[in-house]
Every structure is written in structure tokens, then in C-alpha cells.
Amino acid sequence: MGDIFKDFLESCTTLWRNFNNCRSHFPSMTPDLIGKKEILAAPFYISQGFNVKFIFDQGFSKADMNSINQIAHWLNQNFIIRLYAILNCFHLISDNIDIDFSAAGAVELNIVRRLRNCFSHSSGRFDSQNQYHVDTMKMIHEKLNIEIDSLADWPLSINTILKPLMDGCVKYASSKMSIKT
Fold first, then answer.
1. What DSSP letter does each residue of 97-116 carry, written as one string?
2. What pLDDT sits at residue 1?
3. How much is the pLDDT for 181?
4. 80-83 LR contacts (CB < 8 Å, sep 24+)
5. How far is residue 82's CA from residue 115's CA, in Å, rounded to a whole number?
6. What is the DSSP letter of 32?
7. Backbone phi and psi for residue 51, each to the nearest 5 degrees, phi listed first
8. 90 CB contacts (<8 Å, ≥6 apart)?
9. Is the model's pTM score more than 0.85?
10. Could you give the CA distance from residue 154 to residue 73 in angstroms, rounded to a whole number?
11. Interatomic CA distance for residues 22 and 35, integer angstroms
């Protein structure tokens, strides 16, 4: 692989590190944490060097949980938008570049493109009346085996959605950049 692919990988690695740093400060919080005065970062973040401790003088509340989870979801959406920007910067995708569906990772790239369009050109919320949204959700289900029937919003978990999408985009970039270099 050439230097351009190394630069692409470096950009993705930086994105992933910065994203996880942000998410360690705004992790997904669950109702079982309500009432706790001290919450440690999840082992996932600690293993990456992001050892964060949350202190709540009055105890962790449902309002705290909702606020932090809303920010966490927004950060996950931002990850998709920034991943798309990297792909665009390296001329792997744009409004004028067609996806090569014969290449490994093409479906993941397409999902990133579609999610980016949903997040950048609307409220960012899933709209079950919007066929583009419905089709994108079906692609997520088919490619990533995510149950979608009861979902009211985009599934954007790190381990089952974001990481596999990024990994697929890296495979796509690898195949396309090996042809170009």
C-alpha cells in the first residue's frame, strides 16, 4: 500500500481515538446507575487509557442519564459525519463518485453515506415515514444483523454499528487505493 493509504489509516485512527476519548466522558448510561454518587468509565474506555470517574453530589438521576445519553448519541452521529468527511477527503466517496459494489466494504461505505445524509440534512432522528430512512435501516439490519423492528431511533452502538462500519470502510479504501497506487 502506498503513502496515501497510510495517511487514510492515520486519519481513521485519530478519529477513532478522539471519538473514544469524547465518548469516555459521555458514555451510554443505564437505569441501574441511578442513585449512584460515583460511576467509573466502562472497561472499554479504561483499556484505551481513558480512565474517567463521574461524581454526582446528589446521586446520578434519570435526568442526568437522559442528558448524557442524548450527547452520546449525538457524538455517535458526529462520528459517522467525520468518517464520511475522511472518505470524501481521500476521494473514496462524494456526490460525484459512485460506490464500487464489487469491492469489499462497499455496503458499509454505502450505509455510512446514507447515515451521513440523514444526519447532515435533517434533524438526525429516524423517521419511519421517510423511505430513505427505512431503506437505510433495512441495510443496517441486513449487513450488521441488528434487530430493528422495535427501534424508534438509529442504532449507533460502538461495537455493533460504528466499529464494523469503519472497518468496512477501511477494507473498501484498501481495495480501492491498492488499485490507484
1. B---TTSTTHHHHHHHHHHH
2. 52
3. 39
4. 80/112, 80/115, 80/116, 80/119, 80/156, 80/162, 80/165, 81/116, 81/119, 81/120, 82/15, 82/19, 83/12, 83/15, 83/112, 83/116, 83/165, 83/166, 83/169
5. 11
6. G
7. -90, 90
8. 4, 7, 8, 11, 173, 177
9. yes
10. 9
11. 24
Q: Which residues of the chain have a pLDDT value below 70?
A: 1-2, 179-181
- Counted residue by residue, the chain has a size of 181
What span, in angstroms and rounded, lies between the C-alpha atoms of 85 and 154?
20
Biggest alpha carbon–alpha carbon distance for the chain = 58
Q: How far apart are CA 115 and CA 154, in angstroms?
A: 9
Q: Indicate the burial class of 32 (C-beta count within 10 angstroms; 0-12, 13-18, 19 or more).
A: exposed
The whole-angstrom separation of Cα 155 and Cα 161 is 7
Sequence-distant (6+) residues with CB within 8 A of 177 are 1, 2, 4, 5, 8, 90
Q: In which residue are the cell numbers 447515515 written?
A: 115
Which residue in the block uniquely carries the three cell numbers 444526519? 119
Which helix (H) or strand (E) segment holds residue 17: the answer is helix 3-25
Grid cell listed for 30: 443505564
User: Which neighbouring-strand residues pair with 89?
Assistant: none
Q: Whole-angstrom distance between the N-terminal and C-terminal Cα of the chain?
A: 7
* Beta bridge partner(s), residue 97: 94
| Ranges of each domain in the chain | 3-26+70-180
How many Å apart are CA 24 and CA 48, to the nearest integer? Answer: 10
